[in-house]
Amino acid sequence: MPEKQEKKTLKRRNTLGKGLGALLGENKSETPTPEVTENVTPEVQQQVVEKLDEIAISEIERNPYQPRLEFSDEALKELADSIRVQGIIQPITVRKLTEKQYQIISGERRWRASQMAGLEKIPAYIRGANDTQMLEMALIENIQRADLNPIEISISYQRLIAECDLKQEELGDRVGKKRSTVANYLRLLKLPPEIQTGLRNNMISMGHARALVNVNSIEVQLMIFDMIVKNELSVRKTENLVRDVIQGKDLKKGDVKTKNQPLDFEFSRLQRDLSTHFGTQIKINNATDGKGEIKIPYQSVEDLNRILDILKTH
Q1: Exposed (0-12), middle (13-18) or buried (19+): which is 266, by Cβ within 10 Å?
Q2: Do 120 and 54 touch, CB atoms closer than 8 A?
Q3: What is the pLDDT of residue 168?
Q4: Which CATH architecture has domain 39-129?
């Protein structure tokens, strides 16, 4: 590359770096970088370190407060392919633990994908934070930017309230949501595990789940849940069923047109027990001649390996 062109490229990269720093409020003239010793003190951890640096991937550990429970292997591979071509467009954010040890605050997907792409170093903003600040920053960062499912969001809200000592109003302000929205998410955690699993695996929507929360009986909740899944009921039809139950009407499976051979009590109970055991919504299709099949869905390769591990132990 000619010398002039190389200088021009370097200059352009420096300008890009300044732009990123400006966006994140970086101002080294106002906030000096504290000197970090072998063991970082709580006082230093409280400070925000305005520093963008390249850090060895081997010196970075995952975030123990990460609210995301699953990472799609396919999505990580796509991101890794992009990183090989384009590099890291947005640096991750870490906190410094020791001289050569860092912990992710946000950007675990980029860190994982960078490992897959074969990178040895990754650009990172270094911040100081204690454990409470770390938890709060990580949860809020992921709630606002990651594609979490409703149950993961609900658990994150619950952790922010319990572990960061926040009230629902304060939490709403931090995440930019109304108090009623926060309350609706927290109510989802009152649903039985089978329904939470169905919501997590996109078998029902947030609207279905919000309607089911209003039913006091777990048995009736599960019955309506089975109807939703088997008959692909809309949110409106689900709300109507729930309203009938609240008004004291008996819920009969004959009130809803069924697409499949209905399961008797024993098969329904077995289906629920298997779903709870495997952490995914098992489907049992039972034909009139006694034949049938059991379907075990999985969401990713990691989820499949988890299910296989459960099978191996029995």
Answers
A1: exposed
A2: no
A3: 85
A4: Alpha-Beta Complex (3.90)
Give me the mean pLDDT over the 250-269 stretch: 57
Q: How far is CA 209 from CA 78, 242, 245, in A?
A: 32, 11, 15
Position 240: which residue type? N
Q: What is the mean pLDDT of residues 263-291?
A: 75
Q: What are the distances in angstroms from CA 167 to CA 154, 158, 159, 173?
A: 14, 10, 11, 10
Exposure on the CB side of residue 206, measured as CA atoms within 13 A: 12
Residue 204 contacts by C-beta under 8 Å, 6 or more apart in sequence?
A: 195, 198, 225, 228, 229
CA 274 vs. chain centroid, Å, equals: 24
pTM recorded for the entire structure: 0.47
- Dihedral pair phi/psi, residue 297, rounded to 5°: -80, 155
Residue 228 or 21, more confident: 228
Contact 269, 275 (CB under 8 A): no
DSSP sequence for 151-205: HHHHHHHHHHHHHTT--HHHHHHHHT--HHHHHHHHHGGGS-HHHHHHHHTTSS-
Q: Does 50 participate in catalysis according to the annotation?
A: no
First to last CA, the chain: 62
Please identify which of the residues 50, 108, 136, 152 carries the catalytic annotation.
108
198-257: pLDDT as tens digits: 998 889 999 999 999 999 888 889 999 999 998 889 999 999 999 988 887 776 654 544
CATH 3.90.1530.30 in the chain is located at: 39-129
Q: Can you list the alpha helix ranges (DSSP code H) found in the chain?
A: 3-23, 42-46, 73-86, 108-116, 131-145, 150-163, 168-175, 179-187, 193-200, 206-213, 218-231, 235-246, 265-278, 301-312
Q: How many Å separate Cα 81 from the centre of its chain?
A: 22
Residues 305 and 307: their CA atoms lie apart, in Å, by 5
